[in-house]
Amino acid sequence: MATMDAPASDRNKGPIFEQLQQNNLFLDSNASPINTLEVAAGAGVHSVFLTDSLKTAGFNLSSWLPTDPDELSRASIDARVAESTDAVKQIVAPALPLTLGPKGAKEAIWRAEPLSDKTFDLIYNVNMIHISPWSATAGLMEFSGAKLNEGGALVIYGPFVVDGEIVQSNVEFDESLRARNSAWRIRNLEDVAAKAEAKGLSLSTVIDMPANNKLVVFKRSQK
């Protein structure tokens, strides 16, 4: 299986890594081993690039589990990992199916060991919530609230409406999304944050990114 092309992922992988590295957005390099799950990993560009880059930067990245509901995407992820370095191959696991609904993951595998609750330190999700129904966002928060360790982070990247403000290019993008699928749209950050808060995830950081996107970090509360 050949790897799939993902131009947007190739464009945004570098800026996202820079922010993760510079701002210590989830855990620092001296922390306990970081177990990561990537939701909607697509072609696998970020799975390989961030694993390699974060490890090289000194982060104690022990595992990276890519997921996607699409079988062809999962095949692309695995093919991309197979073409990568030995270090990446040791960290990135074979891609698993993960389909999000309002109650979290639909697949039974996520309700069994070793993937049961409080398994991950970082959940990473790029460019999903605007090209999926709201139930997927609700499911992401339900899933993350259950699967993140205390103090763990959910990192989301994409376009958002913030305090009712949206740039003209994103207005046009939003119109095109709705024309393609009536359930798609650029989400209000306040709505996303409220859904997260209800699942024990507090809004921690919002960073402006290129092309009018944002990097948003939620932290799971520590008891």
Automatic annotation (TrEMBL):
Pfam families: DUF938. It comes from the Eukaryota. InterPro entries: DUF938, SAM-dependent_MTases_sf. Transmembrane segments: none annotated. Belongs to the UPF0585 family. This is DUF938 domain-containing protein. It comes from Triparma laevis f. longispina.
